[in-house]
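Key idea: predict the complex, not the pieces.
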Amino acid sequence: MVIEASGLAKDYVIHLKGKGLMGMAKSLLRSEKKVVHAVQDVNLNMEEGELVGYIGPNGAGKSTTIKMLSGILTPTKGSVRVCGIDPQKKRIQNAMNVGAVFGQKTQLWWDLPVRETFDLLRRMYNIPMERYKRNVDEFMDYLDIGAFAEQPVRQLSLGQRMRAEIAASLLHDPKVLFLDEPTIGLDVNVKVSMREFVKKINKERNVTILLTTHDLQDIEELAKRIVVINHGQVGFDGSMEELASKYADGKRSVSFTLQQDVPEITLPEKMAGHYTIEREGRQVKIRHDGHVNASDLIVALIQKYRLKDIDIRGPQIEDVVMEVYRS
Amino acid sequence: MRETGIQTIRKYYAFFSANLQEAMVYRFAFFNNFLAELIKVCVMLAVWMAVYRQRSTIAGFDYPMMITYLLVSQAVNNIYGFRNDAERPISNKIRKGTIVFDLLRPVKFVNARLAENLGQTVFQVLFAVLMMTGFHIFLPELSGPSSGLHGILFVFSVSAGFLIMFSVSIMSGLLSFWLMNNWGLRNAKAAIVNFFSGALVPIVMLPEWMQKVMNILPFKNIVYVPTMIYMGQYGIRESLLSIGIQIFWAAAMWLMAKGLFRLAIRRVSVNGG
Ligand SMILES: Nc1ncnc2c1ncn2[C@@H]1O[C@H](COP(=O)(O)OP(=O)(O)O)[C@@H](O)[C@H]1O
Ligand SMILES: [Mg+2]
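Result:
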């Protein structure tokens, strides 16, 4: 196991400030505290080379989990091992094993050119020259960084900066990569090239990657395994297919318009119990679950009825995720 | 795999050069600061000149001594940084949450900040030397180090003073983990350090009871002691002893800064996500 987290929990203590001058004076004397259970009892194991999509609504506890896994935050409870070591106790050793991108923060030197930043990172991580050259060449080429490598970071667009960020996080060949909303605010082109890059790194270098994002297309294209967190608790951990079959019931449907009046729609025996029919005159919507194949359903229908405007809906990942968030 | 000493030094050197390069980017802003500092020193000079028109010595300091004290102490202060605010970058990083990246680097936090700070200091030393050279031309009363040996001891004394100042600043910066807005604290620290270090008034000129307080506090080791050594107010023996005390304080404050860092990352959280 590259990442082993068990019973992970983090409470934040917030000191509430009173309103107005009187309230402020009061809070100086006796401050009111509020405890936020940001993460509660999270268990997460990841094998080498796994790419896990870690999703959940805002404030679910994703970033807090990543900060604990990367050794930045001390867990209130539970234990973490990354590459076999406690990331907080052995912070320096851990730093050599992990890389991170936080979409809302920058690790680059604002006033220095990208190339200079890379060179500083080379020295900070003692990256052998030959390996450094290989990495920089590959990343610059693949992410098209060469075009702006000599510009100071403050002059870069968000898309350019994020490409530089992800390259920077991988220069020292980390075994583990934490990506916390790396695609936030990016346009489609940059998103696509970031995705391709992450896929490539994961495949070619066997880097273990934990990815959080609100873009479900990132998840669909990158993650075989999905972990859903909500209110600090893991609600689901499994494959995309499992997620779909577990939460997508009633999310698949076939809609059509009948070309003649039909008193009642009947479907083959074997589909019984796996569908429901909603009907309004000639407009029909059949919702079905994973036991019924949409194509079988349509074949059965067109053998008996004349249809038009057929609309097939698979489980939309958005719907599925909403369902998980709700439950 | 254990890293060699050279590799460790190279890592920290990267932090040093990162800041040196950033300082280069802002060299014009830097020269603005130079100018502001220069004006401040000239104003202080004018005040003391006026004071010495009334009397010839104060607490054993005659006019040329006072001029020397003033300029040397200001030069020392400038070596440490114009506003003695090594904590500002730390506070900002804590507020914005970018401190996460400092915590993800394979280096000791406080040591890396020292390396960064030294990157800036190169410029500050340069400025202090330029300033002193300039004043030597225009102020014949200004004297150099009282002997070659005192000059050498002065360099050691300033280095120790630098470490004390740096540790105090780091601690003040780390307090941002608890107090999200430590602007007030920073200003209070600057005022306290300025006064108690002897950067405003030579400590010997203050009332007896105040001198006693200052002798207990570490701050006089930051500016007053190096300046007195430069001026030859301390004999060689006394200078060596003073440097010994400075080294003690430097080590103590450094360890305290490290302890506070450990406490900070264990106890407190990082902003934003
Ligand atoms: N530094 C902090 N201090 C207090 N509360 C925090 C802090 N960071 C996060 N939280 C709270 O913890 C919860 C989880 O936050 P976070 O892990 O950032 O969520 P996510 O990344 O999933 O959006 C939220 O309720 C948030 O308000
Ligand atoms: Mg977050």
